What does this fold into?
Amino acid sequence: MPNDATGENIILTGFMGTGKSTVGRIVADILDYDFLDTDSVVESRYGTVSEIFAEHGESGFRELEHKVAMDLADRTGLVIATGGGLMLNPDNVAVLSASGRVFCLVADPEEIYRRLANSRKERPLIQVENPRERINELLAERQERYDQFPQIETDGRTQEEVADEIARRMTEPPLDGLGEVQTAPGLPGTAGGPGEVAEAVGEKIRQVKEKFTKPKK
Ligand code: S3P
It folds into this structure.
């Protein structure tokens, strides 16, 4: 059951390979939100990303992910990991940032290249002769649009540490910038001011860390 008393979604954007889905799941766990990944929603409705690109091109895929963005913006209590190109569309930015707070995960291009080494097949945009160069080109093209959101560094940190930062930032008043424009939210379902909220999140983070560090049987 999502803890959605404030109605604020948490939207994660950033380039492929920055860890949006893995981090998003942990944030959802910490804050007791539901988790959704826009690519998975697209795939459950229309077929794999690769098939859609092959049959309808990038523009066909962008239309389908826009439909998904519109649908998700009507919901609450969600952590939404968006495909790396979804928040480049100003219409998607408008609807999703009105539904919650947006954070952009960032990583060094070389690190991105390394992280994507085993999953390039599922990512049509980097199925090219020189993926390293393509990653750099796409990052340069997209930089300005990613920069409009609060940046979350992922290099040299565990995914739990990155998730902790996002969960903590949800207890603080938003900074300026798109997706960070509302007044200070309370943690959903938690009574009290920002101090108590931060304490509650701290406790939840400890519990989730314990869960993730427990040896698997
Ligand atoms: C894309 C990123 C992918 C997927 C599609 C296009 C992009 O998602 O939506 O291949 O334009 O950056 P991830 O960011 O989850 O890899």
Observations:
- Residues 15 and 149 are 13 Å apart (CA to CA).
- Strands lie at 9-14, 34-37, 78-81, 100-106, 151-153.
- The helical segments are 20-31, 38-46, 49-73, 90-98, 109-115, 131-147, 159-169, 194-213.
- Residues 9-213 form a domain with the Rossmann fold fold (CATH 3.40.50.300).
